[in-house]
Amino acid sequence: MSKTTYLLLILTAFILTQNRAFTADPLAFDPGMHAPERTLDFPDGKSVKYRAYEHIYYVAHVVDPVYQTLNLYVPESAYGNNTQTPIFLKTNVGGYMASKASQPSATDATGRALLEGYIVVIPGARGSNSTVIRAAGDTLWTGRAPAGLIDLKSAIRYLRHNKATIPGDTEKIITDGTSAGGAMSSLLGATGNHPAYEPYLKAVGAANERDDVFAAVCYCPITDLEHADMAYEWLYSPTNTGTRSLSPEQIAISNALAASYPAYLNSLNLRKPDGSPLTADNYIAYMKSFLIRSAQKARNEGCEIPPETGVKLNTGFRGSPGEFVVDIDLEVYFNYILNKRQLKTPPAFDQSGVLIDRPSPENSVFGDETGNAVNFTAFSLQKATGHASATPDPSTIEKVRLMNPMSFIGDGVSRTTPNWYIRHGAIDRDTGFQISINLYTKLINNGYNVDFALPWNRGHSGDYNLDDLFEWMKEIL
Ligand code: DHB
Q1: Which amino acids bring their CB within 6 angstroms of ligand 1?
Q2: Rounded to an integer, what distance in angstroms lies between the CA atom of residue 85 and that of residue 108?
Q3: Fewer Cβ within 10 Å of end Cβ, the chain: N or C?
Q4: How far is residue 307 from each of residues 76, 183, 238, 312, 333, measured CA to CA in Å?
Q5: Structurally, what CATH architecture does the domain formed by 39-219 represent?
Q6: CATH 3.40.50.1820 fits 225-402+426-460, yes or no
Q7: Of 112, 188, 118, whose CA–CA distance to 153 is shortest?
Q8: CB of 50 within 8 A of CB of 74?
Q9: What confidence category does residue 392 fall into, taking pLDDT thresholds of 50, 70 and 90?
Q10: Ligand 1, from 99, 219, 222: best to mutate by most atoms within 8 Å of Cβ?
Q11: Nearest residue CA, atom 7 of ligand 1?
Protein backbone atom coordinates (compact mmCIF):
# COMPACT_ATOMS: atom_id res chain seq x y z
CA MET A 1 0.00 0.00 0.00
CA SER A 2 1.40 3.37 -1.02
CA LYS A 3 1.81 6.04 1.60
CA THR A 4 -0.92 8.12 -0.07
CA THR A 5 -3.43 5.24 -0.10
CA TYR A 6 -2.59 4.56 3.52
CA LEU A 7 -3.20 8.18 4.47
CA LEU A 8 -6.42 8.23 2.46
CA LEU A 9 -7.63 5.12 4.28
CA ILE A 10 -6.88 6.68 7.66
CA LEU A 11 -8.65 9.85 6.63
CA THR A 12 -11.71 7.94 5.40
CA ALA A 13 -11.85 5.90 8.60
CA PHE A 14 -11.58 9.12 10.61
CA ILE A 15 -14.40 10.80 8.69
CA LEU A 16 -16.58 7.70 8.98
CA THR A 17 -16.16 7.44 12.74
CA GLN A 18 -16.73 11.17 13.16
CA ASN A 19 -19.83 10.93 11.06
CA ARG A 20 -21.10 7.97 13.02
CA ALA A 21 -20.45 9.76 16.29
CA PHE A 22 -22.42 12.66 14.86
CA THR A 23 -25.48 10.83 13.59
CA ALA A 24 -25.60 8.51 16.59
CA ASP A 25 -25.64 11.32 19.16
CA PRO A 26 -27.37 9.46 21.98
CA LEU A 27 -28.65 12.76 23.34
CA ALA A 28 -30.27 14.04 20.14
CA PHE A 29 -33.92 15.11 20.42
CA ASP A 30 -36.23 14.08 17.59
CA PRO A 31 -38.97 16.71 17.19
CA GLY A 32 -41.04 14.34 15.05
CA MET A 33 -41.28 11.69 17.76
CA HIS A 34 -44.34 12.89 19.63
CA ALA A 35 -47.38 10.80 20.49
CA PRO A 36 -50.76 11.63 18.93
CA GLU A 37 -52.32 14.77 20.38
CA ARG A 38 -53.91 14.44 23.82
CA THR A 39 -56.28 16.59 25.85
CA LEU A 40 -56.01 17.44 29.53
CA ASP A 41 -59.34 18.29 31.15
CA PHE A 42 -59.64 20.40 34.28
CA PRO A 43 -62.31 20.20 36.98
CA ASP A 44 -63.59 23.67 36.07
CA GLY A 45 -64.34 22.55 32.49
CA LYS A 46 -61.26 24.06 30.86
CA SER A 47 -59.05 21.88 28.70
CA VAL A 48 -55.79 22.03 26.82
CA LYS A 49 -54.57 20.04 23.82
CA TYR A 50 -50.94 19.01 23.85
CA ARG A 51 -48.26 16.85 22.30
CA ALA A 52 -46.28 14.39 24.38
CA TYR A 53 -42.64 13.38 24.00
CA GLU A 54 -42.08 10.63 26.53
CA HIS A 55 -39.46 8.29 27.91
CA ILE A 56 -36.49 10.24 26.60
CA TYR A 57 -33.12 9.21 28.03
CA TYR A 58 -31.27 12.35 29.07
CA VAL A 59 -27.87 10.79 29.82
CA ALA A 60 -25.59 8.82 27.54
CA HIS A 61 -24.58 6.23 30.16
CA VAL A 62 -27.92 5.17 31.56
CA VAL A 63 -27.55 3.43 34.92
CA ASP A 64 -31.24 3.15 35.67
CA PRO A 65 -33.58 3.06 32.64
CA VAL A 66 -36.65 3.36 34.86
CA TYR A 67 -35.76 6.76 36.27
CA GLN A 68 -33.24 8.54 34.03
CA THR A 69 -35.80 9.66 31.50
CA LEU A 70 -37.79 12.81 30.95
CA ASN A 71 -41.18 13.63 29.49
CA LEU A 72 -41.79 16.81 27.56
CA TYR A 73 -45.19 18.29 26.81
CA VAL A 74 -46.07 21.01 24.34
CA PRO A 75 -49.39 22.85 24.59
CA GLU A 76 -51.19 23.57 21.34
CA SER A 77 -50.32 27.27 21.61
CA ALA A 78 -46.62 26.38 21.32
CA TYR A 79 -46.76 23.94 18.39
CA GLY A 80 -44.33 24.66 15.58
CA ASN A 81 -41.00 24.43 17.39
CA ASN A 82 -41.55 27.63 19.29
CA THR A 83 -38.26 28.77 20.80
CA GLN A 84 -39.78 31.60 22.84
CA THR A 85 -41.95 29.58 25.18
CA PRO A 86 -40.69 29.24 28.77
CA ILE A 87 -40.17 25.75 30.15
CA PHE A 88 -41.76 24.69 33.43
CA LEU A 89 -39.67 21.83 34.81
CA LYS A 90 -41.24 19.92 37.65
CA THR A 91 -39.47 17.29 39.74
CA ASN A 92 -41.58 14.69 41.52
CA VAL A 93 -38.80 13.89 44.01
CA GLY A 94 -40.25 13.20 47.46
CA GLY A 95 -38.60 11.75 50.54
CA TYR A 96 -35.27 11.83 48.67
CA MET A 97 -36.47 8.71 46.88
CA ALA A 98 -36.43 7.85 43.20
CA SER A 99 -39.10 9.59 41.14
CA LYS A 100 -40.42 8.77 37.72
CA ALA A 101 -41.07 11.06 34.83
CA SER A 102 -44.84 11.47 34.93
CA GLN A 103 -47.61 13.03 32.89
CA PRO A 104 -49.04 16.50 33.48
CA SER A 105 -51.79 16.59 36.07
CA ALA A 106 -54.84 18.82 36.24
CA THR A 107 -54.37 18.98 40.02
CA ASP A 108 -50.83 20.35 40.25
CA ALA A 109 -48.72 23.07 38.66
CA THR A 110 -47.88 20.98 35.58
CA GLY A 111 -51.45 21.01 34.26
CA ARG A 112 -51.81 24.68 35.01
CA ALA A 113 -48.51 25.37 33.24
CA LEU A 114 -49.75 23.61 30.09
CA LEU A 115 -52.99 25.55 30.26
CA GLU A 116 -51.00 28.79 30.54
CA GLY A 117 -48.96 27.89 27.47
CA TYR A 118 -45.72 26.73 29.05
CA ILE A 119 -43.70 23.79 27.78
CA VAL A 120 -43.76 21.25 30.61
CA VAL A 121 -40.83 18.96 31.35
CA ILE A 122 -41.06 16.27 34.02
CA PRO A 123 -37.78 14.44 34.48
CA GLY A 124 -37.41 11.32 36.57
CA ALA A 125 -34.42 10.98 38.86
CA ARG A 126 -32.69 8.28 40.85
CA GLY A 127 -33.10 8.44 44.61
CA SER A 128 -32.18 6.77 47.87
CA ASN A 129 -34.06 3.58 46.99
CA SER A 130 -32.80 3.11 43.39
CA THR A 131 -31.02 -0.17 42.92
CA VAL A 132 -29.66 -2.35 40.16
CA ILE A 133 -28.82 -6.03 40.44
CA ARG A 134 -25.31 -6.70 39.24
CA ALA A 135 -24.33 -9.73 37.18
CA ALA A 136 -22.89 -11.38 40.29
CA GLY A 137 -26.37 -11.15 41.82
CA ASP A 138 -25.66 -8.51 44.43
CA THR A 139 -27.60 -5.28 44.71
CA LEU A 140 -26.04 -1.89 44.09
CA TRP A 141 -27.71 1.28 45.37
CA THR A 142 -27.25 3.73 42.51
CA GLY A 143 -29.23 6.75 43.66
CA ARG A 144 -27.38 7.88 46.76
CA ALA A 145 -26.54 11.61 47.00
CA PRO A 146 -25.91 13.52 44.88
CA ALA A 147 -27.30 11.17 42.16
CA GLY A 148 -30.83 12.65 42.14
CA LEU A 149 -29.51 16.17 41.68
CA ILE A 150 -27.04 14.98 39.03
CA ASP A 151 -29.93 13.45 37.09
CA LEU A 152 -31.95 16.65 37.23
CA LYS A 153 -28.95 18.71 36.13
CA SER A 154 -28.44 16.21 33.31
CA ALA A 155 -32.04 16.69 32.21
CA ILE A 156 -31.45 20.45 32.02
CA ARG A 157 -28.25 19.89 30.06
CA TYR A 158 -30.16 17.62 27.70
CA LEU A 159 -32.65 20.40 26.98
CA ARG A 160 -29.84 22.88 26.29
CA HIS A 161 -28.00 20.34 24.16
CA ASN A 162 -31.08 20.25 21.93
CA LYS A 163 -31.99 23.92 22.08
CA ALA A 164 -32.15 24.15 18.29
CA THR A 165 -34.76 21.41 17.96
CA ILE A 166 -36.56 21.30 21.27
CA PRO A 167 -39.78 23.28 21.65
CA GLY A 168 -39.23 25.99 24.24
CA ASP A 169 -36.67 28.53 25.42
CA THR A 170 -33.87 26.80 27.31
CA GLU A 171 -32.84 30.16 28.77
CA LYS A 172 -36.23 30.33 30.50
CA ILE A 173 -36.31 27.12 32.53
CA ILE A 174 -38.30 27.41 35.76
CA THR A 175 -37.85 24.51 38.18
CA ASP A 176 -40.53 23.41 40.65
CA GLY A 177 -40.53 20.87 43.46
CA THR A 178 -41.93 20.13 46.90
CA SER A 179 -40.17 19.00 50.07
CA ALA A 180 -37.13 16.94 49.03
CA GLY A 181 -38.16 18.06 45.54
CA GLY A 182 -38.21 21.65 46.84
CA ALA A 183 -34.66 21.05 48.05
CA MET A 184 -33.76 19.79 44.56
CA SER A 185 -35.32 22.87 43.00
CA SER A 186 -33.34 25.08 45.40
CA LEU A 187 -30.14 23.23 44.46
CA LEU A 188 -30.83 23.61 40.75
CA GLY A 189 -31.38 27.30 41.40
CA ALA A 190 -28.31 27.77 43.59
CA THR A 191 -25.60 25.60 42.02
CA GLY A 192 -25.80 26.33 38.28
CA ASN A 193 -22.67 25.17 36.41
CA HIS A 194 -20.68 24.63 39.59
CA PRO A 195 -17.59 22.54 38.77
CA ALA A 196 -17.96 20.41 41.92
CA TYR A 197 -20.70 18.37 40.17
CA GLU A 198 -18.72 17.92 36.95
CA PRO A 199 -17.16 14.50 37.69
CA TYR A 200 -20.59 13.05 38.49
CA LEU A 201 -22.11 14.59 35.36
CA LYS A 202 -19.31 13.20 33.21
CA ALA A 203 -19.73 9.76 34.74
CA VAL A 204 -23.40 9.52 33.73
CA GLY A 205 -22.72 10.94 30.29
CA ALA A 206 -24.58 14.23 30.71
CA ALA A 207 -24.40 16.62 27.78
CA ASN A 208 -21.52 19.07 27.98
CA GLU A 209 -23.72 22.13 28.50
CA ARG A 210 -24.64 24.70 31.13
CA ASP A 211 -27.15 23.64 33.78
CA ASP A 212 -28.11 26.99 35.32
CA VAL A 213 -31.81 27.85 35.31
CA PHE A 214 -33.95 30.96 35.02
CA ALA A 215 -35.99 30.56 38.22
CA ALA A 216 -36.51 28.17 41.11
CA VAL A 217 -39.87 27.48 42.75
CA CYS A 218 -39.36 25.75 46.09
CA TYR A 219 -42.23 24.49 48.21
CA CYS A 220 -41.19 23.52 51.76
CA PRO A 221 -37.60 22.67 50.82
CA ILE A 222 -36.14 20.06 53.19
CA THR A 223 -32.57 21.22 52.97
CA ASP A 224 -29.54 22.45 54.97
CA LEU A 225 -29.69 18.88 56.26
CA GLU A 226 -26.54 18.97 58.38
CA HIS A 227 -28.02 21.82 60.44
CA ALA A 228 -31.65 20.75 60.34
CA ASP A 229 -31.53 18.74 63.61
CA MET A 230 -30.19 21.62 65.66
CA ALA A 231 -32.57 24.09 64.00
CA TYR A 232 -35.53 21.84 64.79
CA GLU A 233 -34.65 21.42 68.45
CA TRP A 234 -33.78 25.08 68.93
CA LEU A 235 -37.26 25.88 67.66
CA TYR A 236 -39.30 23.17 69.32
CA SER A 237 -37.45 22.22 72.53
CA PRO A 238 -39.64 24.62 74.56
CA THR A 239 -42.45 22.08 74.02
CA ASN A 240 -40.39 19.05 75.10
CA THR A 241 -41.98 18.56 78.49
CA GLY A 242 -45.42 19.70 77.39
CA THR A 243 -47.40 18.53 74.40
CA ARG A 244 -44.38 16.94 72.75
CA SER A 245 -43.83 14.73 75.83
CA LEU A 246 -40.33 13.44 75.14
CA SER A 247 -38.48 10.88 77.25
CA PRO A 248 -35.52 12.03 79.40
CA GLU A 249 -33.11 10.53 76.80
CA GLN A 250 -34.81 12.42 73.99
CA ILE A 251 -34.79 15.62 76.03
CA ALA A 252 -31.05 15.29 76.56
CA ILE A 253 -30.50 14.94 72.79
CA SER A 254 -32.89 17.80 72.08
CA ASN A 255 -31.16 20.15 74.51
CA ALA A 256 -27.69 19.31 73.22
CA LEU A 257 -28.75 19.94 69.63
CA ALA A 258 -30.59 23.16 70.49
CA ALA A 259 -27.53 24.47 72.30
CA SER A 260 -25.39 24.15 69.19
CA TYR A 261 -27.70 26.12 66.89
CA PRO A 262 -26.97 29.75 67.89
CA ALA A 263 -23.31 29.43 66.92
CA TYR A 264 -24.29 28.16 63.48
CA LEU A 265 -26.94 30.83 63.04
CA ASN A 266 -24.45 33.56 63.95
CA SER A 267 -21.80 32.05 61.66
CA LEU A 268 -24.10 32.65 58.67
CA ASN A 269 -23.62 36.42 59.10
CA LEU A 270 -27.05 37.07 57.68
CA ARG A 271 -28.63 40.50 57.48
CA LYS A 272 -32.29 41.38 57.75
CA PRO A 273 -33.89 43.15 54.77
CA ASP A 274 -33.17 46.49 56.51
CA GLY A 275 -29.46 45.63 56.52
CA SER A 276 -29.09 45.07 60.26
CA PRO A 277 -27.44 41.84 61.49
CA LEU A 278 -29.61 38.77 62.00
CA THR A 279 -28.39 36.88 65.05
CA ALA A 280 -29.58 34.17 67.43
CA ASP A 281 -30.65 36.99 69.79
CA ASN A 282 -33.06 38.70 67.40
CA TYR A 283 -33.99 35.68 65.33
CA ILE A 284 -37.28 34.81 67.06
CA ALA A 285 -38.61 38.32 66.46
CA TYR A 286 -37.56 38.05 62.81
CA MET A 287 -39.29 34.67 62.43
CA LYS A 288 -42.39 36.05 64.12
CA SER A 289 -42.53 38.87 61.58
CA PHE A 290 -43.14 36.30 58.81
CA LEU A 291 -45.81 34.49 60.83
CA ILE A 292 -47.52 37.79 61.65
CA ARG A 293 -47.47 38.80 57.99
CA SER A 294 -48.91 35.40 57.13
CA ALA A 295 -51.73 35.65 59.67
CA GLN A 296 -52.46 39.20 58.53
CA LYS A 297 -52.75 38.13 54.89
CA ALA A 298 -55.09 35.30 55.87
CA ARG A 299 -57.17 37.69 57.99
CA ASN A 300 -57.39 40.18 55.13
CA GLU A 301 -58.63 37.37 52.92
CA GLY A 302 -61.39 36.63 55.40
CA CYS A 303 -59.89 33.72 57.36
CA GLU A 304 -60.98 33.20 60.94
CA ILE A 305 -57.92 33.23 63.20
CA PRO A 306 -58.96 31.42 66.39
CA PRO A 307 -57.38 32.30 69.77
CA GLU A 308 -55.74 28.86 70.07
CA THR A 309 -53.29 29.96 67.37
CA GLY A 310 -51.78 32.45 69.81
CA VAL A 311 -52.39 35.24 67.31
CA LYS A 312 -53.25 38.55 68.97
CA LEU A 313 -55.59 40.65 66.90
CA ASN A 314 -56.02 44.30 67.65
CA THR A 315 -58.99 43.99 69.98
CA GLY A 316 -60.18 47.52 69.35
CA PHE A 317 -61.00 46.47 65.83
CA ARG A 318 -61.86 42.77 66.28
CA GLY A 319 -64.38 41.76 63.68
CA SER A 320 -63.94 44.94 61.68
CA PRO A 321 -62.35 44.96 58.22
CA GLY A 322 -59.40 46.95 59.57
CA GLU A 323 -58.51 44.31 62.13
CA PHE A 324 -54.78 43.67 62.31
CA VAL A 325 -52.40 41.17 63.84
CA VAL A 326 -50.29 42.74 66.55
CA ASP A 327 -48.44 39.72 67.92
CA ILE A 328 -48.28 35.97 68.09
CA ASP A 329 -47.56 33.99 71.24
CA LEU A 330 -45.16 31.38 69.88
CA GLU A 331 -45.59 28.98 72.78
CA VAL A 332 -49.31 28.85 72.07
CA TYR A 333 -48.70 28.75 68.35
CA PHE A 334 -46.29 25.80 68.56
CA ASN A 335 -48.83 23.87 70.60
CA TYR A 336 -51.38 24.68 67.91
CA ILE A 337 -49.02 23.12 65.33
CA LEU A 338 -48.33 20.10 67.56
CA ASN A 339 -52.01 19.44 67.95
CA LYS A 340 -52.36 19.15 64.18
CA ARG A 341 -49.46 16.77 63.71
CA GLN A 342 -46.88 15.21 66.02
CA LEU A 343 -43.40 16.62 65.85
CA LYS A 344 -40.48 14.50 64.74
CA THR A 345 -38.44 13.08 67.62
CA PRO A 346 -34.82 14.19 68.12
CA PRO A 347 -32.67 13.94 66.11
CA ALA A 348 -35.28 14.71 63.48
CA PHE A 349 -33.04 14.03 60.47
CA ASP A 350 -29.78 12.27 61.28
CA GLN A 351 -31.58 9.77 63.48
CA SER A 352 -30.22 6.38 62.48
CA GLY A 353 -28.60 4.61 65.43
CA VAL A 354 -29.06 7.47 67.89
CA LEU A 355 -32.24 6.68 69.82
CA ILE A 356 -33.85 4.58 67.11
CA ASP A 357 -32.33 2.35 64.45
CA ARG A 358 -34.66 3.25 61.62
CA PRO A 359 -32.92 5.39 59.01
CA SER A 360 -34.52 8.69 58.04
CA PRO A 361 -34.86 9.62 54.35
CA GLU A 362 -31.67 11.63 54.88
CA ASN A 363 -29.71 8.71 56.38
CA SER A 364 -30.74 6.71 53.33
CA VAL A 365 -29.89 9.30 50.70
CA PHE A 366 -26.41 9.72 52.21
CA GLY A 367 -26.15 5.93 52.52
CA ASP A 368 -23.57 3.83 50.72
CA GLU A 369 -23.78 1.78 47.54
CA THR A 370 -24.19 -1.49 49.41
CA GLY A 371 -27.38 -0.36 51.09
CA ASN A 372 -26.19 0.88 54.49
CA ALA A 373 -27.69 4.05 55.91
CA VAL A 374 -25.07 6.62 56.96
CA ASN A 375 -24.85 9.26 59.68
CA PHE A 376 -23.95 12.58 58.13
CA THR A 377 -23.44 14.80 61.18
CA ALA A 378 -20.68 14.48 63.78
CA PHE A 379 -23.29 14.80 66.52
CA SER A 380 -25.30 11.73 65.48
CA LEU A 381 -22.27 9.73 64.39
CA GLN A 382 -20.75 10.22 67.84
CA LYS A 383 -23.95 9.18 69.58
CA ALA A 384 -24.46 6.21 67.25
CA THR A 385 -20.89 4.91 67.56
CA GLY A 386 -20.09 5.96 71.11
CA HIS A 387 -16.89 7.59 69.82
CA ALA A 388 -16.78 11.11 71.20
CA SER A 389 -14.50 12.43 68.46
CA ALA A 390 -15.95 10.62 65.44
CA THR A 391 -16.63 12.71 62.33
CA PRO A 392 -18.26 11.69 59.04
CA ASP A 393 -15.69 10.64 56.46
CA PRO A 394 -14.59 13.25 53.92
CA SER A 395 -16.64 11.72 51.11
CA THR A 396 -19.82 11.98 53.18
CA ILE A 397 -18.98 15.57 54.14
CA GLU A 398 -18.52 16.40 50.47
CA LYS A 399 -21.86 14.81 49.52
CA VAL A 400 -23.57 16.78 52.28
CA ARG A 401 -22.01 19.96 50.92
CA LEU A 402 -23.15 19.14 47.39
CA MET A 403 -26.72 18.72 48.67
CA ASN A 404 -26.90 22.07 50.46
CA PRO A 405 -27.78 25.21 48.48
CA MET A 406 -26.47 27.29 51.41
CA SER A 407 -22.93 26.13 50.54
CA PHE A 408 -23.12 27.72 47.08
CA ILE A 409 -25.15 30.93 47.26
CA GLY A 410 -22.82 33.90 46.90
CA ASP A 411 -19.71 31.74 46.41
CA GLY A 412 -18.76 33.62 43.24
CA VAL A 413 -18.49 30.35 41.31
CA SER A 414 -22.05 29.09 40.80
CA ARG A 415 -24.42 30.80 38.44
CA THR A 416 -27.28 31.15 40.92
CA THR A 417 -30.65 32.01 39.45
CA PRO A 418 -31.80 35.56 40.23
CA ASN A 419 -35.47 34.51 40.56
CA TRP A 420 -36.84 32.62 43.56
CA TYR A 421 -40.27 31.68 44.82
CA ILE A 422 -40.12 30.00 48.25
CA ARG A 423 -43.04 28.82 50.36
CA HIS A 424 -43.06 27.01 53.68
CA GLY A 425 -46.47 26.37 55.24
CA ALA A 426 -47.02 28.05 58.61
CA ILE A 427 -48.03 24.73 60.19
CA ASP A 428 -45.47 22.60 58.33
CA ARG A 429 -43.42 20.73 60.96
CA ASP A 430 -41.33 18.58 58.64
CA THR A 431 -38.40 20.92 59.16
CA GLY A 432 -37.85 24.12 61.16
CA PHE A 433 -39.03 27.43 59.71
CA GLN A 434 -35.41 28.59 59.88
CA ILE A 435 -34.44 26.41 56.92
CA SER A 436 -36.56 28.41 54.48
CA ILE A 437 -36.08 31.70 56.33
CA ASN A 438 -32.28 31.37 56.17
CA LEU A 439 -32.38 30.35 52.51
CA TYR A 440 -34.53 33.39 51.73
CA THR A 441 -32.32 35.70 53.78
CA LYS A 442 -29.06 34.46 52.30
CA LEU A 443 -30.50 34.91 48.81
CA ILE A 444 -31.66 38.48 49.37
CA ASN A 445 -28.35 39.29 51.08
CA ASN A 446 -26.69 38.28 47.82
CA GLY A 447 -28.95 40.47 45.73
CA TYR A 448 -31.39 37.90 44.36
CA ASN A 449 -35.09 38.43 43.84
CA VAL A 450 -37.11 36.26 46.26
CA ASP A 451 -40.84 36.01 46.72
CA PHE A 452 -41.08 34.39 50.14
CA ALA A 453 -43.93 33.56 52.49
CA LEU A 454 -45.03 31.16 55.22
CA PRO A 455 -48.63 30.65 54.04
CA TRP A 456 -51.15 30.56 56.88
CA ASN A 457 -52.50 27.19 58.01
CA ARG A 458 -50.58 25.34 55.31
CA GLY A 459 -48.97 22.01 56.13
CA HIS A 460 -46.28 20.12 54.30
CA SER A 461 -47.43 20.44 50.70
CA GLY A 462 -46.75 22.12 47.39
CA ASP A 463 -48.19 23.50 44.17
CA TYR A 464 -50.87 25.50 46.00
CA ASN A 465 -52.09 29.06 45.41
CA LEU A 466 -51.30 28.59 41.76
CA ASP A 467 -52.77 31.99 40.89
CA ASP A 468 -49.99 33.58 42.98
CA LEU A 469 -47.32 31.39 41.46
CA PHE A 470 -48.33 31.96 37.85
CA GLU A 471 -48.72 35.70 38.43
CA TRP A 472 -45.17 35.76 39.82
CA MET A 473 -43.86 33.74 36.86
CA LYS A 474 -45.46 36.18 34.45
CA GLU A 475 -43.80 39.08 36.27
CA ILE A 476 -40.29 37.62 36.19
CA LEU A 477 -40.63 36.57 32.57
C1 DHB B 1 -39.66 14.75 52.86
C2 DHB B 1 -40.23 14.94 54.10
C3 DHB B 1 -39.44 14.89 55.21
O4 DHB B 1 -39.96 15.08 56.45
C5 DHB B 1 -38.07 14.65 55.10
O6 DHB B 1 -37.31 14.59 56.20
C7 DHB B 1 -37.51 14.47 53.83
C8 DHB B 1 -38.29 14.54 52.71
C9 DHB B 1 -40.53 14.82 51.64
O10 DHB B 1 -41.76 14.88 51.78
O11 DHB B 1 -39.99 14.84 50.53
Answers
A1: 94-96, 179-180, 222, 360-361, 430
A2: 20
A3: N
A4: 50, 33, 20, 8, 9
A5: 3-Layer(aba) Sandwich (3.40)
A6: yes
A7: 188
A8: yes
A9: very high
A10: 222
A11: 95
